[in-house]
Structure formats: structure tokens, C-alpha cells
Amino acid sequence: MPWYKAGTVSVTQNSNSVIGTGTAFIANSRVGDGWRGPDGGWYEVTNIASDTALSIDPPYQGATNAAGVYALAPLQGYVKDSADALRALVNQFGGVLAVLGTTPTLAGIRTELNLTDTDGLPEGSNKYHTEARVRAAVLTGLVTTDATAITAADALLVALGKLQAQATATAQSLGGKAASGSNSDITSLSALTTALSIAQGGTGVKTIAALLTALQAAGAYGRNNIVGTVSDAAGVPNGAILESGFINSCYYEKRADGSLLNRKQVTIGGGTAANGSIFKSVNFDMGPFAYPFVGDYEMFGYGISSASGGGWAGQQLFGSASTWGQWAAYHPVLISGSTNMIIAVVAHGRWK
Fold this sequence. Notes:
CATH class of the domain at 252-350: Mainly Beta
Oligomer: single chain
Strand content: 25-35%
CATH architecture of the domain at 252-350: Sandwich
Distance between the termini: 136 Å
Strand order of the largest sheet: 6-1-2-5-4-3-7
Order of helices and strands: EEHEEEEEHHHHHEEEEEEEEEEEE
Shape: rod-shaped
Structural class: alpha+beta
């Protein structure tokens, strides 16, 4: 190791102090080094105070010199100190170095220590992120008062706190609203612009008129379809409830339940003629029914004088399911030939 000679020194006769200029004593000398002064004498370094100040022993023997040359010489003691330090290092860490192996790479050390994965690590308390420990982790420090939006910069604990705050705020805002499913807290609806469908428990329309139309289109009866054309399909009514009209000079009423009423009134002239102890008009063919009957039906009538009233009517010739037959008016007294007789008949049965 070369001697250190940089800079100059200032020394005073009989003084232990050496003051350097342009020197770096700390990095280039040690206590115990040999120091040769400007006088050529050798001294022992006893203290290094700074890069520009050290102490020697014995005190400087030469003449005072403000800028003298010098030399710092390392002595053989460094080798012994190094050997002692190395021996101490081996004694303290030799076993550790043996455990680390002989491959001078990170991968080699991991292999030697069985640390290529976490299987070789003994687990301490909450040391590794196993699934069970993650699930059981306590959310220490969780803050649930910030309901702002989660951002990519948020830590997991912060994000969980925001989610809880948002959920709490939502629950509070919905606290006065009706729950889904069966509930009894809805008492009225206002400002509803879309009609609830039938599947939703509504009608699908917004007005009473539209509701009646929809109901009637679906088969319900209302004022618009109670009276109309009575019909059915395979015995099931699919038309109006009541149908009435005037056909073949005959009034009729046809009902959805299958009942049928035919009604007719005629006026015949000629009065009455003796017929035993009573008086009778001429026979009159009443013609066809407005609607024919199906099966049995019943029929009755009456006859009166247009002048004096009274009397009755009787069927003279049976009709059919579609005709009235012949009828005549009867009266207890003789009605003059110039007086008209009125015959009214009613037939009741079924149209289906």
C-alpha cells in the first residue's frame, strides 16, 4: 500500500498537533500509522480528528514549519487486523454462508433455502395471503362516511368503505318507498303516465271508455254490446245478450240464453158471425215467425173488437216451427161487418 503524501502540514516544535492543508487524513490513515515529519523523524499517529488535523507521539522534535512535507506510512499491523477481522467474520457467519450454498445467484440461494415458492416458508400469524386468512381479515380502519364514486386510485379498504356508504345512502333514500312483492303501504299513485298492464295488475288503458271497449273486446258485456246480434259458437254465447227487431211483420226478442219470443198483431175486417152461442171472425193466416223455434214452444193470443173491446183469439190451424198458423177472433156478441177485429199472438220458445 503506497504512503500518503498529499498536501502540506504545519507543525510546531514540542507540539503533538499536526495541521494539514489539502489533506484527507480520515480516509488515508489510521491510529498506529507511522508519520514522517518535515524533520525526517518518525512519529506514531495517536488520533485523527479530521481530514486536516491529527495528533502524533512523541511531540514534534524538529524546527517549527508552516508548510512542510510529510508522509503517512501504513504499518504491518493492518494485515494482522484484517486476518483477525476475517476470522471473527467466519466464526460469526460461516454457518450462515454454508446454508446459503455455493451458487452466487438469487435463484441459487432460493433453491438452497427451498424458497422457490412459499411452500418452504413456515407460516407465522397472519403472514401470508391464504384464502382463509383473506376471508377472515378484519377491516381495521374502515371508514363508511364517504359515499363518493370509487376511483382506480382508491385502496381496497377505501373502496369497501365507499361501497358501504353508498349502500347506506341508497337504503335511506328508499326507506319511504314501497317494497317489491306483496305489500300494503301503497295507498295511491299520482302522475302515472303509462297504464299498468293486466299482467302488472292494471287494465292496460287510461280511460273508462277505453276500459269498457277493452273489456267488451275481451268478451265482457257493457252498454255497447248488451243489445245487438245474439250468436254463439259451439253453444257458447259470443254476441250480444239481447237482440230485437221486426221481421215478417213480426216483432221478436232473441236472448243469449237461447230463449226466443215472437210477437205479432193483425187487424182483420168483417166483424163476427154466429158460431154456436158465440160469434167468430174469419180465419186469418198469421204468416211466418220472425225467427223459427227449435223444439217445443208455447203460444197464446187474444182477439178484441176495435169498437167495443172484449173477446179472445183461438188457433184454427196449427202452424210449424217457423209459422203462426191460422187464427180467428171470438166475441160474446155479434160485431157488425163494418167493424175490425184485432188479433194479437205471442209465441215463446228457444232458438237454440
